[in-house]
Structures are given as C-alpha cells and as structure tokens.
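Hello support,

Our group uses your service weekly, and this is the first time we've seen a run hang past the timeout. The protein is Erythromycin esterase. I'm not sure whether the cause is the sequence or the server load. Input pasted verbatim:
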Amino acid sequence: MENKVVQAIEKYSTFLSGPADLDQLKDAAGDAKFVLLGEASHGTSEFYTVRAELTKKLITEREFSIVAVEGDWPACQAVNRYIKGYDTKHNTARDVLSSFNRWPTWMWANEEIIDLIEWMKNHNEKHETQPKVGFYGIDMYSLWESMEEVIAYLTKIDSPDAEVAKKAFTCFEPFNRDNQEYAVSAGLYSEGCIDEVAKLLATIQRKKEQYPCEEEMRLNLEVNALVAYNAERYYRSMVLRDEESWNIRDTHMVHALNEIMKFYGVTAKAIVWEHNTHIGDARATDMAHNGMVNVGQLIRQQNKPEDVFAVGLGTYSGTVIAADEWGVNHDVKTVPKAVKGSWEDLMHRAGAYDKVLIFNEENKKNFQQRIGHRAIGVVYRPEYEQFGNYVPSVMSDRYDAFIYIEESRALQPLVLERVVL
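Update from on-call engineer: The timeout came from a worker crash unrelated to the input. Re-ran successfully.
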C-alpha cells in the first residue's frame, strides 16, 4: 500500500521552487469563495511565508478581500486598522504587532508576518476599491479584552447599553482574568456569567443598526460581544468535555467569519489561515468518531463544493518554535524525521524536495487510505511525538491540495522573553 501511495505522489505532485509554482493552487481554487490555508504547526517559518505568497496572489488576481486568522479579534483589529489607514498611533507593522501580548505571542508577533501586513497596507493605499482588504482574528480566547472593547465603545458613543456591558464584566471581575479559575467555577460549580453575556449579546444584536458604523466599529462591537458569549461557554465546558469545548471554539470561528463575510457583502471572498486540525475536514479524520467538528467541515457543509478550497501544509523534518507546557517560555525545537509510514514520510520517499499535490477527480482514489498525518501544537515534546502527534487522515478527503516542505525552519518571534498571561 505504501509503495502505491509513494508512486501516486511521484506521478501527481509538482516541484515547489518559488512563488510562481503557487499559481497552480490559485488556478485550482477557481472561483472559490473560501480558500483555507493550513499549517502543521504554529511555529514554522515556511508555513507563514508560503501562505503569504499565495495570499498575495489570491488578493491581486482573484479579488479576495478578507484574511481571517486563528488569532484574537482585538489584537487582529489593531492590524486591520493599521492596514486600512484607520490607525494613527502605529507607524510600522512591527509596532502594531505589539498588540499581540497574550501567550503564545509568536503566532502573530513574528518576523515572517511583517512583510504581508506591510504589503496589504500598501495594496489598500494603491487601490480605491471598497471595502479595503482586511485582516481579522476569528478565535475566541480574548474574553477579557473583548469585554473591555465593548464597554469602551458603548461608553464612547454614550449608549445606555454600556450599563449592560459593565454588569456583564462585573460578573467576571472576581476571577482576576484567570481563565482556568473561571472554567472551574463555572463548569464544576455552576457559578458562571452566562446570563450576563447572553443578555449583552442579545442587546447588541437587537440594536446593532442603531450603532455608528464608521471604521467598522459596528462589526467590531458585534464580534467582540460574540467572543465574550462563546468564550464564556468555552471555558465553562472545557473542564467537563474536551469535545464540546472544541466544537464551541470551531463553531464560533465559522460564525465570526460569516459575520465578516456579511459585512463585506455578496461578493466577499475569504482566505483563512489556521492549523490543519481546523481547516482540514474533520470527517476525514478520527475526530469525527469523537463527535468533533471543525472549521473546514462546517464551511464545506454551509457552501457549495466549488466554493471551498482547502490546502494542508506539512514538513518532513527541521525546527519549530513551541513550548514544553502551556504558558511557559518557548524555544527552538528539533522536528524529527517523520514516523515511517506517515503521510510526511511517504511524501519524503516520493522525492526529498518541496512539492505541491493537488487532489482531483483523476487522482483522489489513490489517496483514500487512512494515513497518520503529523500535527504539532504550541505545546510540543518531540521525544513523545510518535505517541500523539499523528492524526489518522484520508488525505484527499481532508484537503483539496497539499504543500509539502522537505526541511523546515523555526519561525522568528519578535519577542523572545516570556510574556505574562
């Protein structure tokens, strides 16, 4: 079986030697409204640089206007405001990336993303099309920051709804911004703030047309309220069922993305940057057996097949930025050669070079086997990799294409010292 897969990879893959070789992915995506770009880790330089080059092509040649990433909404809004010229405080992309001050900061506060941010800003300045190309975080870990954003905006416009927001935030204050403390209190002892954030979200959604909308402030208000509501649900569920908390998070990311799409209108087209475990269809992995869904699955279910194009990324060996435990200092770790028989190992055996493989009707049948596919998180212990870092996957069902990097190198964080949570 392995030899047949290797032979099929040799036959259907093409060399990846530079940005020009990414044109085939742009062309294969056709008129898709969603192009999902994955990564096998949050700390690999090539995953960022390759996605950035493909993103530029999609913006300039396919009129994509949204870049949505696995990041916090408030911090990414700082980037969005910078590239759209709303921000008068920051002079460079390097300055604005200081907004990413919550661990793991390196995911977005890194050298590799600077070029794309400056490129997007320059693109917006050169083109008068509306709406401008935007950069958005669709994750939901920013419970406290999002609550503060809601209060600040409602107070600024002198809205009576500010009192509803302040009441909701007051409920969270005893937990001192400690997500774990809130999770235990709400999940185990039912001492949570669900009623308060539900009332806040309902109020904002009911009255959203009444709020001023300049510089996307109405969208910002609504999504921050959505973050607060779903983050509360996420932390309340995480101590009870991992599967439920996962589903809340990925469903939220799709909800937030859809709100951005509605804001941009019927011609909206979005590029999504997230980990492979989010953008690769969960139904093609063992996640489905555990009752888990993900962004890739939900977006495919909500749209026509031709409107979604998902690209996975992976590597055979190299280095990566990660941490030994959640919240501790990160460092450069060695990514060992892929486990024998894994997807990455088979890609390597098909030729020790970077390559692109596009799955289509002609070749999909050659990649229907369930094969281990490497996934590295922000917490990573290479010495234990073979016991938990490979996700059984039907690759041609999980993705529409795959980008393989033979030997990758670690991302370059802007700030190397530990940042307080």
